[in-house]
């Protein structure tokens, strides 16, 4: 139940607004969390997904509960490498957009990585956000690591990490106890790469006790923890902070608290307000317009005369757009992380569908896989990504039991 309550708090602080009925949300969230726990306790990921899918049908008429279930289901889809299902589940609880197209006629498109690194040269803190079900957003941070290291950044902090996370990042792998969202393979790869490069891994979100469980308390505690763990020891430190949604906001959220408590301006980068959906009806029209430029293959920004466009300049500095996802061998192209791709064989599931393919370096009991996908049927063409050296591919069936285990060189 602890994980369910943690997720409820994350969902609440992420999505709440002045118009949110707080009491209704929390009551529904607890009820839904208890139900999910009840039906899925002791199940594997491949078993859990259809259970939550079935439960969502029961709550279809309860808009608050259904939205919470779709958020949770979407996160589990991301854990399973099912990006198309992430997009679909997002749209299932969405309304057709009523947003106005932003005027970007005076701006040109430029690569996001280079422009963020240029801006980072004059900052000690860079903060990048994500939608927690969009593993794509972790790829931007992953790609920035090399450039930021060259600029002297030596710390990476992440909202997802538990207090003892640094002890859960062992030689060549990250354990399932390191954090909640780090159970998703791309997030695990991000933290592993940072660790291997020499970044100090900082957890901060639950370091100090909470009494009121308010946004104000959470953000203040987070800023105090970052100050204590990093800047009290090294005032000239440079830190990359990876967070969810509104924590980059420079009004009442973490970015503003860092400025107040530490006295430093944060370079804030948003990826969550102009994003891809499964259907253009649910997209912000600015994203739909921007994604029509088929020549763009990497994350990009809009730029004009040394100014980078922001969807909300009072809250964050830079808005990043991702090209519409293209797929190779059933996988998003952005998920490769420079790794080789290996087609999986549905017949290896032994007709036990859906089955799950996980890629490990060591296959320790507590090891988070470096890749994971689900194969739904004998006609489902999928692939996994392999790192250099030996890769252990573990296949489990719809009952969560082991089917086979093989070693393949990447």
Question: Any chance you could write out the topology, listing elements then pairs?
Answer:
Blueprint: H1 2-15, H2 22-40, H3 45-58, H4 63-79, H5 83-92, E1 108-111, H6 112-120, E2 125-130, H7 136-150, E3 155-158, E4 169-170, E5 173-174, H8 185-197, E6 200-202, H9 215-231, E7 239-244, H10 254-262, E8 266-270, H11 285-290, E9 300-304, E10 307-308, E11 318-319, E12 327-328, E13 331-332, E14 340-343, E15 355-360, E16 371-375, E17 383-386, E18 390-396, E19 402-409
Parallel strand pairs: 2-7, 2-8, 3-6, 3-7, 8-11
Antiparallel strand pairs: 1-9, 4-5, 9-10, 12-13, 14-17, 15-16, 15-18, 18-19
Helix pairs in contact: 1-2, 2-4, 3-4, 4-5, 6-7, 7-8, 9-10
Helix/strand-derived class? alpha/beta
Beta-strand residue percentage = 15-25%
List the domain count as a whole number.
3
User: Which strand order spans the largest sheet, edge to edge or round the barrel?
Assistant: 6-3-7-2-8-11
Q: What is the mean predicted local confidence, pLDDT?
A: 91
Taken from the alpha-carbon principal axes, the silhouette is globular
Provide an overview of this structure.
The chain has about 400 residues and is an alpha/beta fold. It folds into 3 domains: about 1-90; about 110-320, Rossmann fold (3-Layer(aba) Sandwich), CATH 3.40.50; about 330-410, Immunoglobulin-like, CATH 2.60.40. It is built from 11 helices and 19 strands. It has helices spanning about 1-15, 20-40, 45-60, 65-80, 85-90, 110-120, 135-150, 185-195, 215-230, 255-260, 285-290, and strands spanning about 110, 125-130, 155-160, 170, 175, 200, 240-245, 265-270, 300-305, 305-310, 320, 325-330, 330, 340-345, 355-360, 370-375, 385, 390-395, 400-410. The protein has a 6-stranded parallel β-sheet with strand order 6-3-7-2-8-11, sandwiched between helices. Strands 16-15-18-19 form a 4-stranded antiparallel β-sheet, with no helix packed on it. A hairpin with a 5-residue loop joins strand 18 (about 390-395) and strand 19 (about 400-410). Helix 2 crosses helix 4, helix 4 runs antiparallel to helix 5 and helix 7 runs parallel beside helix 8. The longest helix has 19 residues, at about 20-40. It is globular and about 60 Å long. Mean pLDDT is about 90; it is low at about 1-5 and about 10-20.
């Amino acid at each position: 139940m602890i994980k369910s309550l943690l997720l409820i708090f994350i969902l609440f602080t992420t999505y709440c607004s002045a118009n949110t009925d707080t009491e209704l949300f929390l009551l529904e969230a607890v009820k839904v969390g208890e139900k999910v726990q009840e039906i899925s306790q002791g199940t594997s990921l491949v078993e859990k997904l259809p259970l939550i899918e079935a439960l969502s049908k029961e709550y279809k008429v309860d808009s608050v509960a259904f939205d919470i279930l779709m958020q949770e289901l979407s996160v589990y889809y991301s854990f399973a490498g099912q990006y198309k299902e992430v997009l679909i589940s997002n749209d299932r609880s969405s309304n057709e957009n009523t947003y106005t197209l932003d005027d970007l006629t005076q701006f040109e498109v430029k690569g996001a990585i280079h422009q963020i690194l240029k801006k980072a040269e004059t900052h000690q803190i860079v903060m990048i956000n994500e939608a927690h079900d969009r593993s794509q957003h972790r790829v931007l941070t992953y790609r920035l690591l090399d450039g930021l290291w060259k600029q002297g950044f030596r710390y990476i902090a992440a909202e997802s990490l538990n207090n003892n996370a640094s002890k859960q990042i062992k030689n060549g792998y990250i354990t399932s106890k390191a954090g909640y969202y780090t159970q998703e393979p791309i997030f695990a790869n991000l933290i592993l790469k940072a660790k291997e490069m020499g970044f100090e891994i900082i957890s901060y979100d639950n370091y100090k006790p909470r009494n009121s469980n308010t946004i104000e308390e959470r953000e203040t505690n987070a800023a105090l923890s970052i100050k204590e763990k990093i800047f009290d020891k090294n005032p000239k430190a440079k830190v990359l902070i990876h967070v969810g949604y509104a924590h980059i906001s420079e009004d009442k959220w973490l970015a503003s608290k860092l400025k107040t408590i530490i006295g430093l301006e944060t370079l804030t980068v948003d990826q969550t307000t102009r994003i891809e959906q499964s259907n253009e009806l649910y997209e912000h029209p600015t994203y739909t317009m921007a994604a029509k430029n088929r020549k763009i293959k990497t994350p990009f920004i809009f730029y004009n005369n040394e100014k980078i466009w922001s969807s909300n300049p009072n809250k964050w500095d830079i808005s990043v757009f991702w090209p519409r996802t293209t797929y190779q061998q059933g996988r998003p192209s952005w998920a490769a992380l420079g790794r080789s791709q290996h087609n999986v064989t549905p017949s290896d599931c032994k007709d036990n569908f859906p089955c799950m393919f996980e890629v490990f370096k060591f296959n320790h009991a507590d090891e988070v896989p470096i890749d994971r996908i689900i194969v739904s049927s004998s006609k489902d063409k999928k692939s996994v990504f392999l790192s250099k050296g030996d890769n252990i591919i573990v296949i489990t069936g719809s009952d969560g039991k082991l089917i086979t285990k093989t070693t393949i060189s990447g």
